[in-house]
Amino acid sequence: MVWFRKTKAPITPVEKKTVQMPEGLWTKCKNCSEIIYAKEIERNLSVCPKCDYHFRISARARIDLVLDGDSFREMDANLQSVDFLEFKDSKRYKERIKSAVGKAGGGDAVVCGEGTIDGLPVVVAVFDFSFMGGSMGSVVGEKITRAIEKGLETRAPVIIFSCSGGARMQESILSLMQMAKTSAALARLKQAGIPFISVLTDPTTGGVTASFAMLGDVNMTEPRALIGFAGPRVIEQTIRQTLPDGFQRSEYLLEHGMVDMIVTRQEMKARLSQILRIFTRH
């Protein structure tokens, strides 16, 4: 019998090296899962160039996209939420407000003001989902109501861009009261014959959908936006039935007459200008 022995040391395995990509350089699309250069998405107005998925954007970014340059004059920027109920769940509401203000750079979940679209005067209210999920509390309801009243005062059309998880639970019944408050203001606007255009973006749910968001003279939406009152999972558990494909998405709502049109982000300003000219006969 012959025995063999190793005369050399075993080969040292090559140490694996991980290449770290600069943070924020690439973005994975939530719809098609493609990895896309972030700058390419930014150049395409935060829309996926592969599948046309519309990423959420901030209120300020949407204002820059839709209104004429340097025409926006903000209203009620100093209004901030207050923890008048001393509410606490997993975290104190006061702390949530402080964190949201720091993240959004001040204000609340909606930015309101006056401006122009292709030279046509408008009053706009734009939700920012990064501020507590765009939830509607007392400040949001007050700012939207004041924006509508500014439209009444100046006889300028009102446009609201909704992006919200609904009423803010930390303010209890006071947040629900904003549904009636904003709807009553819109009733006065309608009585005065001043147009209201509602633009529903992803997501528009809860008490926002159940109040002003669906009361537009024209209800517009971006592609594939989630729009509804309760979430699909809650509805399925309640009615014990499987929901149709695409339920509560823009395309489904358009097919069933719940919204008037779906408009891509690239076309939004031109379409709003067209509708405003029809309403105001310019």
From TrEMBL:
<dbReference type="GO" id="GO:0008270">
    <property type="term" value="F:zinc ion binding"/>
</dbReference>
<comment type="similarity">
    <text>Belongs to the AccD/PCCB family.</text>
</comment>
<feature type="binding site">
    <location>
        <position position="48"/>
    </location>
    <ligand>
        <name>Zn(2+)</name>
    </ligand>
</feature>
<keyword id="KW-0547">Nucleotide-binding</keyword>
<keyword id="KW-0443">Lipid metabolism</keyword>
<dbReference type="InterPro" id="IPR029045">
    <property type="entry name" value="ClpP/crotonase-like_dom_sf"/>
</dbReference>
<dbReference type="Pfam" id="PF01039">
    <property type="entry name" value="Carboxyl_trans"/>
</dbReference>
<keyword id="KW-0067">ATP-binding</keyword>
<keyword id="KW-0479">Metal-binding</keyword>
<dbReference type="GO" id="GO:0006633">
    <property type="term" value="P:fatty acid biosynthetic process"/>
</dbReference>
<keyword id="KW-0862">Zinc</keyword>
<comment type="pathway">
    <text>Lipid metabolism; malonyl-CoA biosynthesis; malonyl-CoA from acetyl-CoA: step 1/1.</text>
</comment>
<keyword id="KW-0808">Transferase</keyword>
<comment type="function">
    <text>Component of the acetyl coenzyme A carboxylase (ACC) complex. Biotin carboxylase (BC) catalyzes the carboxylation of biotin on its carrier protein (BCCP) and then the CO(2) group is transferred by the transcarboxylase to acetyl-CoA to form malonyl-CoA.</text>
</comment>
<keyword id="KW-0444">Lipid biosynthesis</keyword>
<feature type="binding site">
    <location>
        <position position="29"/>
    </location>
    <ligand>
        <name>Zn(2+)</name>
    </ligand>
</feature>
<feature type="zinc finger region" description="C4-type">
    <location>
        <begin position="29"/>
        <end position="51"/>
    </location>
</feature>
<dbReference type="GO" id="GO:0005524">
    <property type="term" value="F:ATP binding"/>
</dbReference>
<dbReference type="InterPro" id="IPR011762">
    <property type="entry name" value="COA_CT_N"/>
</dbReference>
<dbReference type="GO" id="GO:0003989">
    <property type="term" value="F:acetyl-CoA carboxylase activity"/>
</dbReference>
<feature type="binding site">
    <location>
        <position position="51"/>
    </location>
    <ligand>
        <name>Zn(2+)</name>
    </ligand>
</feature>
<keyword id="KW-0275">Fatty acid biosynthesis</keyword>
<dbReference type="InterPro" id="IPR034733">
    <property type="entry name" value="AcCoA_carboxyl_beta"/>
</dbReference>
<dbReference type="Pfam" id="PF17848">
    <property type="entry name" value="Zn_ribbon_ACC"/>
</dbReference>
<dbReference type="GO" id="GO:0016743">
    <property type="term" value="F:carboxyl- or carbamoyltransferase activity"/>
</dbReference>
<protein>
    <recommendedName>
        <fullName>Acetyl-coenzyme A carboxylase carboxyl transferase subunit beta</fullName>
        <ecNumber>2.1.3.15</ecNumber>
    </recommendedName>
</protein>
<dbReference type="GO" id="GO:2001295">
    <property type="term" value="P:malonyl-CoA biosynthetic process"/>
</dbReference>
<dbReference type="InterPro" id="IPR000438">
    <property type="entry name" value="Acetyl_CoA_COase_Trfase_b_su"/>
</dbReference>
<dbReference type="InterPro" id="IPR041010">
    <property type="entry name" value="Znf-ACC"/>
</dbReference>
<feature type="domain" description="CoA carboxyltransferase N-terminal">
    <location>
        <begin position="25"/>
        <end position="282"/>
    </location>
</feature>
<keyword id="KW-0963">Cytoplasm</keyword>
<feature type="binding site">
    <location>
        <position position="32"/>
    </location>
    <ligand>
        <name>Zn(2+)</name>
    </ligand>
</feature>
<comment type="subunit">
    <text>Acetyl-CoA carboxylase is a heterohexamer composed of biotin carboxyl carrier protein (AccB), biotin carboxylase (AccC) and two subunits each of ACCase subunit alpha (AccA) and ACCase subunit beta (AccD).</text>
</comment>
<keyword id="KW-0863">Zinc-finger</keyword>
<dbReference type="GO" id="GO:0009329">
    <property type="term" value="C:acetate CoA-transferase complex"/>
</dbReference>
<keyword id="KW-0276">Fatty acid metabolism</keyword>
